Amino acid sequence: MNSKMMPKLKENQQKAICSQLKNVGKLNLIYKASIHGFTSAAFHQHCDNKSPTVSVGYNKSGFVFGGYTRQSFSQSGQWVKDNQAFVFSFSGAKLNKYPVTDATYAVKMTNNSGPNFGDTLILAYKNGPNVYSNPGSHRSLMYHKYYNFTAEKMHGNDLDLTDCEVYQVEECLKFENPWREVTWTDEEKKKLMERIESYKPSISSVSEARVLLVGAVGAGKSSFFNSFKSVFRGHFAGQAMAGNIISNTTTTQFRSFQIKHQGKLLPLVICDTMGLEADEKEGIHPDDITNIINGHIPDRYQFNPSDPLQREVQGFCKNPELKDKIHCVTYVVDATKISIMSQNMEDKIKAIRKKINLLRIPQLVMLTKIDEACPLVKEDIRNVYKSMYIKELMEEASARINVPVSCVVPVKNYNKELKPDMNIDILLLNAVDQILNFVDDFFDDQESE
């Protein structure tokens, strides 16, 4: 990239766009109208035969909008089909996405304009700094509604461009050798299961490890427990309430779950909580997380986001023992959203982490939905430590939550699968095995005191 050609698209906006792409990668700026010129010739010179691309327009009213296509631009004059194309606009950091409604007319390859999304949205139109916009309409049966949006939301009806940029999407790359070693065999799965079943805390007064899951709404806390339970049950489990909730959390109570295998309980208690939310007045209160860790909150306690449980209230456990407390905290983070995590959410997690540090509780991060984040992993879960993009996401999770990369473990929860999968099981078991290693560290610290 030309050192003078700095992208106008903000980093969080770039990440928001990347989070929507199937072949996730970085955006490399290849054309900038304010430098190369608001002409169709300049656009085609820098952008033809390059794909996939993201085209972005900026207007005087401050709107940021554009489109994505996997097809290469050309001057053929033809319509090209692209069922993955979409146009978009930003409302602050939020991405408004409008998928193509008639893939046959996704992109038009014109020689007298900039990026042309089906004659519906055209940037740098007719060699001038402007935009042509013809959003979808139900008024005429003769009109092809290629993309369905309103002009007001797209660009505020301001058709004067201040700049136009085109970014080429860098595809997800693969390491030749995995950067973490995992043994993908039935024997390894059996060995991990036996190790977890035979786990015994080093302090005699404690019979089981207690692990607390903390994470945003929809990150996959409850789904992780259900998936882990499925490994030992041999079929899918749904004890913990899990779901695709957008506006609020499925889990509203404090729940302590155990798993029975061959008639015996595993020496592990997984504690699920109400989800974190960016809004200070929503989601679990940070003080309630401290109460849980210290063993003050009873099972099935109903959370109140605005009012944490007080010592004088009935139900508050005043004299908990070490066996009642939390021995390890695991932050559950959605891999598809880590790059667009809001500053409020990041600050909330860091504040919680600071409180937990003072309590000297070991902490790690579990990265979920890795198959949705990276096509290589979706193709084969065994690519998890070969994917450069997953490594980058793990490094980003490490930086945002302020833990070493060695404390970040990727998993895939069961979601749409109809049959158990040995490789998914091994990744889940490895994560729990690492959690128990951290629990051992906690007990070692307790013994030294």
Topology readout:
Elements (H helix, E strand, L loop, with lengths): L10 H8 L8 E6 H4 L3 H8 L5 E7 L4 E6 L9 E2 L5 E6 L2 E6 L7 E2 L7 E2 L3 E3 L7 E3 L17 H5 L5 E9 L16 H12 L11 E7 L5 H13 L21 E3 L2 E2 L2 E2 L2 E5 L13 H8 L34 E7 L8 H16 L4 E6 L1 H4 L1 H5 L8 H14 L6 E3 L11 H27 L1
Parallel strand pairs: 12-16, 12-17, 17-18, 18-19
Antiparallel strand pairs: 1-11, 2-3, 2-11, 3-5, 4-7, 5-6, 8-9, 9-10, 13-16, 14-15
Helix pairs in contact: 5-12, 7-8
- Termini separation comes to 56 Å
Query: How many strands, which pairing sense, and closed or not: the largest β-sheet?
Result: 6 strands, antiparallel
Mean pLDDT: 87
**Beta fraction:** 15-25%
Binned, the helix content reads 25-40%
Return Rg in Å: 25 Å
Which regions are unreliable across 5 or more consecutive residues at pLDDT < 50?
137-144, 243-249
Lateral strand order in the biggest sheet? 1-11-2-3-5-6
The count of helical stretches stands at: 12
**Number of distinct beta strands:** 19
Q: Specify the structural class.
A: alpha+beta
What is the overall shape? elongated
